Amino acid sequence: MGTKLVLPSPNGATLTLATGNTPTLTGCLRNARAVAGIARKYGSRIAVIPAGERWPDGSLRPSFEDLIGAGAIIHYLNGKSSPEAFAARSAFLAAENELTNLLLRCGSGKELIERGYKEDVNLAAELNVSDCVPILQDGAFVSAIMKSRERYKK
To answer: 128's torsion region: left (phi>0), alpha (psi -120 to 50) or beta?
Structure first.
């Protein structure tokens, strides 16, 4: 408890800071079901955005792992979805039984392996192993569960 963890994600950080007062959760394969559960508490219109990566020249690079992660969250949301959400969910369902293998073989996975972070890729491929749902509050992410507990104390 009290540990702060900072992960570099230029695109994710840029998108997060642009959300203003909109409740902003952070999700991945590891917490997809939990994120969907918390997101439903905020209403029926939910945007799930796979942030992607950047090429060395600064241009946008679509990210396989972000698409699959977004698709996993969408899978647990249910309800109507846009064609883009349908495609992300379909991609997740097609990859679900091969997550580790596919993440190790995708562009970002290969880059991480080359840098000595293969175990990080293996950890990232674990589905629904975490109930932690980060929510942006006052410029930093805190546990959505802790935030709801604080709300009930008042």
So the answer is: left
